[in-house]
Amino acid sequence: MPAAAVDSQMGVARTVKALRARVDGWRSAGLTVGFVPTMGALHDGHLSLVRRANQYAQRTVASIFVNPAQFAPTEDFSAYPRQESADLEMLQKAGCHLAFVPTAEEMYPEGFQTSVSVGAVSQGLCGASRPHFFGGVATVVAKLLNQVRPDAAVFGEKDYQQLLVIRRMVKDLNMSVDIIGAPILREADGLAMSSRNAYLSAEGRAVAGRLNGVISAMAEKLAGGAAVDATVADGKSAIESAGFDRLDYLEVRSSDLLEPMGPGPVTKPSRVFVAAITGKTRLIDNWPVEMGA
Amino acid sequence: MPAAAVDSQMGVARTVKALRARVDGWRSAGLTVGFVPTMGALHDGHLSLVRRANQYAQRTVASIFVNPAQFAPTEDFSAYPRQESADLEMLQKAGCHLAFVPTAEEMYPEGFQTSVSVGAVSQGLCGASRPHFFGGVATVVAKLLNQVRPDAAVFGEKDYQQLLVIRRMVKDLNMSVDIIGAPILREADGLAMSSRNAYLSAEGRAVAGRLNGVISAMAEKLAGGAAVDATVADGKSAIESAGFDRLDYLEVRSSDLLEPMGPGPVTKPSRVFVAAITGKTRLIDNWPVEMGA
């Protein structure tokens, strides 16, 4: 079959062997490879990552794998939305060349017993309320990067802490891949796109849409020199007033190492990080403090 | 400089950048690459690994790095023998093409915070008395394999548990490298070659030389159908009689997963594993039970 025919439609690999056969073919042809790991339930945010990968490489692989190792027993692993055929169609339209859709058995065969963990940058924020999360993420991403062996991999800034964890892991373990962060895509009212938004009731959706306004206003105040502690206190009130049921965290941390800022004005490039719950849905978001802007 | 001249003498790389420049040059020339990680203080056992790597690949890299992360504070990190120029000369004579000799700062720059850990196969034996050991080993070997990117890496069976830990890690993390085990080289009296043999007093050396006789006799009895518990009890007496100051462990475990055998005869391919102390020196050794031999 001529190469053009092979590449005119997106392939689907369900095993590492099939994945590598395809990727090795590209390599032999001198093509560069980009990679976008996902848990499926795709939305425009994911597709923007695929398009970004296509800017960095000539072929793009996207994986769809709901990773059991990054969910705690109390979390929403079983309920996490799954819609494979819709996902595959969206990936193809976005210009993805190969979808890698492994089973849990392919990823974690019997006897599996290795884990990768990252230290300080995994602590706090989502690492505090989800203690197994980043270990599970680091391990599965290490596997995926070794399976795909891409030149570049794209991660969304919505999961900003995850992006830093992956950057740290790749650097510390001397993995040969460029890690590219991509900006958050937002709905018309500014709500960060997320697969978990599908859980929201109409009322919850209205509440959720107010989160980004709170943190962007905080970021603007902080950029103007406001003290972190007072700004966070005001932000907490605003989130309560917005109708959220519970605040997991609202913090200002440095953009490179996630060092806590405050109590006074921020002293280096920082972001406002938030996780808040409405109904049964936990939403996260973050916003950069544009210093000197 | 023509390639022949470059390869006629062994190179020395002290940074990952220099290492990769050399290895990438080989790759571009279509050459395969073997790798032997060491902590220096080389002896014929190490050199046999280099020669074995040369059977599997056209170019061989050996690393010399005394990895602080695999020593506990109470262990012999500072005292561990270091003899770089002698090591480099030995490597060159053994046919090594490139020595990678990184500093601790090159391996663990400020901010380093990632670790790789392997589960069940790291438990027991050396993992029991040296709880940080295999985590430190897995992390540094993951780094070295990603730095060198070899086709094959050779590990001695003297550190048999380490070999299994590395095999497991490579499989679990989908790393693209063949892990090759190489048989133990022994002195004339059967003492397994080890850098730590240099610590032995004349008296300790005589005691040490009796260890292999005890475990090989045990392996022979077990191969003949003797019960594990009785054989181990006899072995413990023999090690005490041989003059050792302390026994760390003496166990019979399966060769693939290190499952404990006994109390009756072994039920699958197994090895006798021992760690014993004479003076300040801890010696390890292992011997296969030749079933059906």
List the helices and strands and how they pair.
The structure is a homodimer of 293-residue chains.
Chain A: H1 3-8, E1 11-13, H2 16-28, E2 33-38, H3 44-56, E3 59-64, H4 84-94, E4 98-100, H5 104-107, E5 114-118, H6 126-129, H7 133-148, E6 152-156, H8 160-172, E7 178-182, H9 202-208, H10 211-223, H11 228-241, E8 246-254, E9 270-278, E10 281-289
Parallel strand pairs in A: 1-4, 2-3, 2-6, 3-4, 6-7
Antiparallel strand pairs in A: 8-9, 9-10
Helix pairs in contact in A: 7-8, 10-11
Tell me what you see in this structure:
Two copies of one chain form a homodimer. By secondary structure, chain A is of the alpha/beta class. Chain A has two domains: 8-182, Rossmann fold (3-Layer(aba) Sandwich), CATH 3.40.50.620; 195-285, Pantoate--beta-alanine Ligase, Chain: A,domain 2 (2-Layer Sandwich), CATH 3.30.1300. Chain A has helices at residues 3-8, 16-28, 44-56, 84-94, 104-107, 126-129, 133-148, 160-172, 202-208, 211-223, 228-241, and strands at residues 11-13, 33-38, 59-64, 98-100, 114-118, 152-156, 178-182, 246-254, 270-278, 281-289. In chain A, the strands form two sheets. In chain A, strands 1-4-3-2-6-7 form a six-stranded parallel sheet, with helices on both faces. A three-stranded antiparallel sheet of chain A has the order 8-9-10. In chain A, strand 2, helix 3 and strand 3 (59-64) form a beta-alpha-beta unit. The longest helix of chain A is centred in the middle third of the chain and has 16 residues, at 133-148. Chain A is globular, with a radius of gyration of 20 Å. The model of chain A is unreliable at 1-7 (pLDDT under 50). The interface between A and B is medium-sized, with 27 and 27 residues.
